[in-house]
Amino acid sequence: GDKLDVSLTPDEGYGDFDPARVRTIPKSEFPARMRNPKPGTMLQIEEDGHWRVWRVEKVEADTITFDGNHELAGQDLHFSVEILGIR
After folding, report:
1. What pLDDT, on a 0 to 100 scale, did the predictor assign at position 46?
2. pLDDT at site 12
3. Could you report the per-residue pLDDT of 43-76, keeping only the tens digit for each?
4. Which of 58, 52, 49 is nearest to 70 (CA)?
5. Which of 12, 50, 54, 58 could form a disulfide with 66 if both were Cys (CB 3.0 to 4.6 A apart)?
6. pLDDT of res. 61
7. What's the rounded Cα separation, in Å, for the pair 47 and 50?
8. Residues forming beta bridges with residue 50, ordered by sequence position
9. 3-state helix, strand and coil shares in percent for the chain, rounded to the nearest 5
């Protein structure tokens, strides 16, 4: 029945928002089948030998803007916790 409010800074949560993780790439660099993704679509893109998840932010006539930050990056997080049972 204990209750607790917890707050986390970005450093304790998903990190600071990194503008360098937002990139606009020409559609011509993608296969034809991948040139019109819907905003919000998550794609795995290989970068420096590692697979990373990127979110489609914006699709324009000739470019696609991707964001490699976690959706909660840069935000303070607040949780209200209540213990309902112990196993």
Report:
1. 85
2. 97
3. 898 888 999 899 999 999 999 999 999 999 999 9
4. 52
5. 54
6. 95
7. 5
8. 47
9. 10, 45, 45
CA 19 to each of CA 24, 32, 55, 62, 87: distance values in angstroms, whole numbers, following the listed order: 12, 27, 14, 21, 43
Q: Under a CB-based contact definition with an 8 Å cutoff, are residues 5 and 76 in contact?
A: no
Contact 8, 74 (CB under 8 A): no
Taking CA atoms, 56 is separated from 32, 67, 76, 81, in Å, by 16, 7, 23, 33
Residues 6+ apart with CB under 8 A from 73: 10, 14, 15, 16, 17, 18
**Is 45 within 8 Å of 54 (Cβ atoms)?**
yes
Residue (of 69, 44, 38) closest to 56 by Cα position: 38
Q: CA–CA separation, 68 vs 45, rounded Å?
A: 10
